[in-house]
Write a structure and sequence with these properties.
This protein is mainly beta. It is built from 3 helices and 15 strands. A 7-stranded antiparallel beta sheet has the order 1-2-3-11-8-13-6, with no helix packed on it. Strands 7, 9, 10, 12, 14 and 15 form a 6-stranded mixed beta sheet that branches. Strands 4-5 form a two-stranded antiparallel ribbon. The N terminus is likely disordered.
Length: about 210
């Protein structure tokens, strides 16, 4: 099931900028979605005749929303072809990870699926369009599978990750699993063999 965001939004006003923007300027908007714990983070560019200045991360602003602030790995992916699909990935407990995902070149269709056993929204999904121009970020807590499909050629994606990569805990579920029925924008043009052959949901979580 695809959700739209609920109206739980915080606008964070930052301190004075060296570039000349003053106290009280809204720098980031945080919106929690119907999938509890998943947040849409929207940096708000400050624009003048020189161009723009955008804050993309602030430890205090994250902590004020009750979100993780320590990310031990920063990674990027580059997908050459439009329609490339990556997912659906997660790390098993006790190595569950928080991710912050953003698109730094091109555009992607970013998807999260709730796999938390006791969650009232278990097996439901939500999608976001992330682009280099909108600068939006998705905060994904542990207990979710994550995947994406590129909407442009040469899409680049940035990941902030709270846990170190643990190969034996790294796993996934099928992008086309009928248990989720994710509505992808198009048939995958490129898909790794690993992502093509992830097990169905029940087998993946055992």
């Amino acid at each position: 099931m695809h959700f739209t965001s609920r109206p739980r939004t915080r606008k964070i006003a930052g301190p004075p900028f060296l570039g000349g923007w003053g106290q009280g300027v809204v720098t980031v908007r945080f919106t929690e979605t119907e999938l509890s714990g998943v947040w849409l983070i929207e940096p708000m560019p400050n624009i003048d005749d020189r161009g723009s200045f955008t804050r993309t991360f602030c430890e205090k602003e994250m902590a004020d929303c009750g979100l993780a602030t320590r990310f031990v790995q920063h990674s990027q992916s580059h997908s050459v072809h439009k329609g490339t699909l990556r997912g659906m990935h997660f790390q098993k407990e006790p190595y569950g990870e928080v991710k912050i995902v953003s698109c730094i070149r091109g555009a992607i269709y970013d998807v999260v699926v709730d796999l938390r056993p006791t969650s009232p929204t278990r097996h439901r999904w939500k999608a976001f369009e992330l682009t280099a121009s909108n600068k939006s970020q998705i905060y994904i807590p542990p207990g979710f599978a994550h995947g994406l499909q590129t909407l442009t050629d040469h899409a680049e994606v940035s990941y902030l990750i709270s846990q170190f990569y643990v190969p034996q805990a790294s796993t996934g579920v099928r992008y086309d699993d009928p248990a989720f029925a994710i509505d992808w924008p198009m048939e995958p043009s490129v898909l790794s063999e690993r992502d093509r052959t992830w097990p169905r949901l029940d087998a993946a979580l055992t």
